[in-house]
Amino acid sequence: MSPTRTESPREAWARAEALWRERDVRAYAAWRAVDPASPEGREAERRLDAADAIYRSVIARLRAGEPDASAPLAALPGALALAPIDPRLYLPLARALRDHQPSDPVRAARYYLRFLASGPDEDEARAAVREVRALPLDTSPETAASVAATVRAFDATERRDTAREATARAAGPTVTALPAPALLASGVAVGLALAALGGLLVARRPRGTSLERASDEAPELHPAITYLVGGLRHELLKHRIGAASDALAALVRGRATAPQRAFLEGRLFGGEPLLAAWEGHLRAFERALGPRVDLRRRDRAFREAARAIAEIARLEPLLARDPSAAIPRLAQAHARLRAFDDRLAALAARLVRTRVDEALVREVVDAVQSEYSASLVALDELRIDVTEPDLEVEVFRVDLVLILKNLVRNAILAVGREPAPRRLAIGVSVDLEATGEELVRIHVRDSSPETLTADAIRERRADRGLGLVSAALARYDGALSVEPAGDGYAKAVTLRFFRALERPDAPHAAEAT
Amino acid sequence: MTTPLTYPARPVLLVIEDGTEYAEFAQLFLGDAFDIRAARSARDALALLADPGADALLVDLRFDRAPREDLVGDVDDTASRLFGGDRARALRHLQDQQGALVLGALRAAGHTQRAVFVHDFPPRRLANLRALYGEVHAVPSFDASALRAALAGARRPAR
């Protein structure tokens, strides 16, 4: 290929790495093409060989029939984080999964499709098409559709080729001189068809979004996202990246002591490789949040963080060889990760907070009134009185809605059992405590004289829903009480929370350098 | 150490905490500028404020090692008012926020000295504390120079 001839090994290496980051199937060939006599080429070779050994051992372990395929497969991300996979390995990997993991044909199909997308030679492609077509994919219509589309594309190119050959044959004796370009042309055609299909398949797959967007769209994900973000921040960004800040700052100033340097290297390069740790967190996000979130492709912040992590991992040998070249790049990648951490912190803080306003109360009341039994109750009066501006509590919105729905439902059903007038009022008050904290009380008042005590609620005598409420409240340092209420109401069930006050800002990015 | 018989020349910093860490830190890093006195409860603090008095207060927020009878605030009242009758949570709350409640008790007794907390309060909480208790400062961590700055110029009010 001509570009590699004029490229310096450094340029070739940069291009190869870019392909790898884009998960381009050509990455493997580009890595192998970096001049093996150059330091970059040696580095590429070393990592390719290390990754290759892992891929091959995964295949061997699968063939050996380990009962739980997920154990050998768990090694794949580590290898993928190290270097691109030789696309030729997709076929043995797919076959090993097909033969030894018959309960998961979808996974096998995925590797067959990757193999086909890598532009294999015709005979192997034909075999792969035959094999993937035979997989029982009825449990996954999505995968079955991808396979069907690939098979159709393959058949179409085959037919075209056959037709072309027939035409050529008819044209005369020159045909025999043509097989090589014809084969090449057919290979290109398959490649193009598959590339087009790739686009189709992506469109067909439910599109994931960024983490921030998903959390805007799906409040039910907030607890999971907060948990996952907490794990990522604590284990990786705090203990590995954040902990290295002071040592790195000393290094940047050129005044790092040997123990400081050792500490830095321990945090960044010791133990589980950073890339593998990062990959582990990404997979935890993927497992928990499913396809609606696509951190690898659709989340800019995560993509940039992944690049910074990869950069740090890459700098390990350079730091030993040429510290003055490595340190500024290290500091830059480090600062990017600190900024990423700040962003995650802000997101997590935002998710656990819920604004207490009229919209929230309306949402709750509307939801309850659309339920069958509550919809039968004709309220004579419904008052909603929430006027305090910028009022937030540290409770996940889903949980606060759940709690409030229970209280409102209970009140509506209670007044429904009594003669008119049936009155309900939901209001909020805020009080300053002697500690400087602010108490937020959400009152649900109703006109039903039916007795209800806080103890009854706690002991679940009143209603199973309310038992649930007190459990949820304990998690948030909230409380519930029942009081008599004046103003024509019989009683008030009151939720008490502490007001969420803004946190002092602590931007890491500034302190890192 | 001898107890000075007269009003000491250096300003007095009264440290109020349930342990000894604040006092040790103050002695080490602020001992040159302040005469450090230590109180373990609001009661001790009130006695020291009567004699020898103090120019500033350094107050711990969390008192989880203090005996319960030394805490400002009533567990039962707090439990029924804030925690739906849960006394364990009420006690924890009183411990966690004790410093602010101690300061409230000192203010109620007429002591208006500058008070400094070592705590990263959200700005709104600090504003609330100032609205309640006048001169209140906070430094986010044990940082001698930040503490010095927060205490600079603090003098006991004329009584």
Structure commentary:
The complex is a heterodimer of chains A (513) and B (159). Mean pLDDT of chain A is 82; it is low at 1-5, 171-205 and 504-513. In chain A, the strands form two sheets. Chain A has a five-stranded mixed sheet with strand order 2-4-5-7-6. Chain A has helices at residues 2-6, 9-21, 27-33, 39-63, 70-73, 76-82, 90-100, 105-117, 122-133, 141-171, 179-204, 211-217, 222-241, 245-252, 258-269, 274-289, 300-321, 323-351, 358-369, 372-375, 397-416, 454-458, 464-475, 508-512; strands at 354-355, 381-385, 392-393, 423-432, 438-446, 479-484, 491-498. Chain A folds into three domains: 2-204, no CATH class; 211-352; 354-498, Heat Shock Protein 90 (2-Layer Sandwich). Chain A is α+β, with helices and mostly antiparallel strands and 513 residues long. The radius of gyration of chain A is 31 Å and the shape is flat. Helices cover 64% and strands 8% of the residues of chain A. Chain B is of the alpha/beta class. Chain B has a domain at 12-66 and 102-151: Rossmann fold. In chain B, 42% of the residues lie in helices and 14% in strands. Chain B has helices at 21-30, 42-50, 75-82, 87-96, 98-108, 123-133, 144-151; strands at residues 12-16, 35-39, 56-59, 114-118, 136-139. In chain B, α3 (75-82) packs across α4. Chains A and B meet through α22 and β6 of A and α5 and α6 of B.
- Enter the CATH topology name of one domain in chain B: Rossmann fold
Classify the beta-strand content of chain B into a percent band. Answer: 5-15%
Structural class of the helix and strand makeup of chain A?
alpha+beta
Question: Please, what is the CATH homologous superfamily of one domain in chain B?
Answer: Response regulator
Largest sheet of chain A: 5 strands, mixed
Mind summarizing the main beta sheet of chain B? 5 strands, parallel
The total strand number of chain A stands at: 7
Give helix and strand order of chain B, one letter per element, not per position: EHEHEHHHEHEH
The helix content of chain A is 55-70%
Question: What class do helices, strands and sheet pairing of chain B give?
Answer: alpha/beta
Our Rg estimate of chain A from Cα atoms comes to 31 Å
Largest interface, C-beta closer than 8 angstroms, per-chain residues: A-B, 21 and 23 residues
In whole angstroms, the N-to-C terminal distance of chain B is 28 Å
The low-confidence parts of chain A are: 1-5, 171-205, 504-513
Fraction of residues in helix of chain B: 40-55%
CATH class of one domain in chain B: Alpha Beta
Across the major sheet of chain A, the strand order is 2-4-5-7-6
Question: For the terminal residues of chain A, how far apart are their CA atoms?
Answer: 43 Å
Strand content of chain A: 5-15%
Question: Which geometry of chain A do the CA atoms define?
Answer: flat
Radius of gyration of chain B: 16 Å
